[in-house]
Design brief:
192 residues, Alpha-Beta Plaits, Histidine-containing Protein, Chain: A, 9 strands
Length: 192
Amino acid sequence: MRSSGAVTRPRDIKTLSITSTTLLLACSLGFAIPPSAQDRGENTRLTRQVRHELVTLPYYSVFDNLAFRIDGSTVTLLGQVTQPTLKSSAENVVKDIEGVTHVNNELEVLPVSPNDDQIRRAEYHAIYSQPALNQYALRAVPPIHIIVQNGHVTLDGVVANEGDKNIAGVQANSVPGVFSVTNNLRIDQSGS
């Protein structure tokens, strides 16, 4: 049975979309005193550097979902990747950033599955060949990420409007052999 629904993410997780500027800043929930302007500037710099290092990883693709949370000088990597080398590469590049003292690598390596690989290809074709969505395919790494695990599909990333989100969800549900589709696509609030 297929289902389509939106799953909300905790507000303290910074989700990474390679072409998106809509990223949620990881915030520390335990602060009683607001951070100073200097601390906010440092956190913004660190956020930009972590994002830059992750999006330039050589094996990062539309089938991976990289997210991170920053708490002081600790960076926690979250999401799913298709290759173990991407998990270790992400940790290595982040721990070399000035200002990072510790990296918690919670990236999940998706299981190897020829069936999931077939679904990934079919989902990519169904979504990015749709005329309303093919504009997103022109980017270095398209912003609609397709995560497939044991026949279950999750769409993650950022699109321009609600219509594009809905079209992507319908297209994802049209692929044979998929058990469920969760549409976690977010709408770009920056207006670009």
